[in-house]
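Thread: "does anyone have the structure for this chain?"

Original post by V.I.:
We have the sequence but no experimental structure in hand. Need at least a predicted one for the grant figures.
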Amino acid sequence: MKPLLICDCDEVLLHMVRHFSVWLDEAHDIEFSLAGGDFARSMRRRADGNFVASEEMPAILDGFFPDQMHRQTAVPHVREALAELSQVAEIVILTNLRDHCREHRIAQLASHGIVHRVECNQGGKGGPVARLVAEHGNPVTVFVDDLAVHHQSVAGHAPGVHRLHMIAEPALAPHVPPAPAAHARIDDWLEAKEWIAGRFASGGPAPVPTRA
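Reply from O.Q.:
Generated one for you, tokens below.
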């Protein structure tokens, strides 16, 4: 049974926020602060200086996905790292996009030389990760994502999964602390590849923290 690697896409495989920031300026006259850390407090309208309301964000994101996805660029070394890891593991891309974006994401990743199964999701990733692990026969599994909330979700639903926190955008990474529910934080694919391979080689589930 092959190990399983479950990867997020934006800010793990592909850069997103740097291109989203440029598009927001061009299309909406909105300033996006890469140093904001909190996505909800990163978008400010230039006209009045007010933050974009949370209820407006889904419509704005729908304007970027899928029509502006061509702007996104691959994270350094990711194609080579995934190609090497795919020699020993199954790889699934679990991306939080609406279902109608799935074919666009598949084509987008393929244009960067990344061709693996893609699944779309909305909300927490713990449930989908647990289902993927079960589908593959409960192998040694590594989960990679940039958002702490998803590591917490996976910890709750699939505690035996090894969890790697990665933020591949160098302008954003220093402003975001390591996810408490992740086992490690690595923002570079050269180092991440070795960490992931080490978890696969261990042959066992992730350690579950014990409470005193």
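V.I.: this helps a lot. The two ends are 35 Å apart (CA to CA).
O.Q.: and The beta strands are 4-7, 14-15, 30-32, 43-45, 73-74, 90-95, 117-120, 141-145, 162-165, 184-185.
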